[in-house]
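Researcher: Let's do a round of design. I'm pasting the structure tokens now; please hold your answer until I've finished.
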């Protein structure tokens, strides 16, 4: 098993959670941080237990031969350029979501990664919680039968109390409700079902409460999905302006059973008279400190050891973003949008 030396770009809230995780895993050694700020390496060592060099220039950072993996933790619009430059430098890459704020940038990122043959891991970390892993296994074993409906909903009030609020309110930084956060719900639906989307229709609105007035874009959207198999429908609610505790809802309905968060029922298992409750961890917090980065990063190290692409690589995340871009276009135009409009 190899030890992979990590260079982190950006040093905000999520980067701190990433650094904590790298320090805790034997497969990683954080060695470098690139930030616009003048960071003190000694302070970082005292807080995180990591001895790191500090760069303030991206090009100089990428020239450092000690870096095996680049971990991109900057605000959303910076991800494309940093991913492309890291790929061209031959570095494997971890990318926080969203990968990009528009389709054209996402295509350029994927082309750079494919051209340079580097491995990627996108932080759609909900795939790694036990609830998602159990749901995937139940579906693949056919216990739900033929899935014909699914809904996944994201409720998280990203107001002034949230650390990314100051920049997230801007259209050219946050992008949309789906791009900035609700993408987790859409992604988990697509990953669990493993089916290609044909068409989407989306509406959007926003909470009129005064604390959300600074937002330059609609902070709630609801998206209806029609899948190419001609059978399955889906619904994703992305509500990033609610006044309530965090909720991540997953409901999957098949011909022979259903999953509803912790509840499971299948006609294919004799003796079940009602819902069974699964002993699993739900996605129940928007705090990055509670995200399953440990499972995600340990899996990435395993994939690097074995020379294989992770199931949460950039190519997989690109497919989720195609649907997001189509949904946002639908909300803007008031018309259904075919995924053929967002094909490479």
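Researcher: That's everything. Go ahead.
Model: Designed sequence:
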């Amino acid at each position: 098993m190899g030890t992979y030396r990590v260079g982190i770009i950006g040093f905000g809230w999520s980067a701190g959670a990433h650094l904590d995780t790298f320090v805790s895993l034997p497969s990683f050694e954080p060695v470098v941080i690139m930030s616009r700020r003048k960071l003190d390496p000694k302070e970082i060592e005292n807080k995180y237990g990591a001895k790191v060099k500090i760069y303030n220039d991206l090009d100089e950072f990428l020239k450092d031969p000690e870096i095996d993996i680049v971990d991109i933790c900057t605000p959303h619009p910076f991800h494309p350029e940093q991913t492309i430059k890291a790929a061209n430098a031959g570095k494997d890459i971890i990318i926080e979501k969203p990968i990009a704020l528009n389709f054209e940038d996402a295509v350029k990122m994927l082309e750079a990664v494919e051209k340079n043959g580097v491995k990627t891991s996108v932080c759609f970390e909900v795939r790694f919680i036990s609830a998602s892993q159990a749901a995937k296994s139940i579906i693949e074993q056919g216990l739900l039968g033929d899935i014909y409906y699914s809904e996944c909903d994201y409720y998280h009030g990203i107001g002034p109390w949230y650390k990314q609020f100051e920049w997230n309110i801007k259209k050219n930084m946050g992008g949309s409700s789906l791009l900035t956060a609700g993408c987790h719900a859409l992604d988990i639906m697509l990953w669990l079902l493993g089916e290609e989307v044909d068409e989407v229709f989306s509406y959007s609105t926003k909470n009129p409460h005064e604390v959300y007035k600074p937002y330059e874009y609609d902070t709630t959207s609801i998206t209806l999905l029609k899948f190419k198999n001609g059978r399955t429908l889906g619904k994703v609610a992305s509500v990033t302006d609610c006044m309530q505790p965090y909720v991540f809802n997953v409901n999957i309905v098949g011909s022979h059973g259903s999953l509803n968060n912790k509840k499971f029922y299948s006609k294919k298992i004799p003796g079940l008279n009602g819902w069974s409750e699964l002993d699993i961890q739900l996605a129940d917090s928007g705090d990055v400190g509670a995200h399953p980065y440990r499972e995600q990063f340990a899996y990435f190290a395993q994939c690097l050891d074995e020379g294989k692409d992770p199931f949460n690589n950039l190519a997989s995340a690109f497919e989720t973003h195609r649907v997001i871009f189509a949904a946002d276009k639908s909300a803007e135009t008031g018309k259904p949008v075919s995924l053929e409009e967002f094909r490479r």
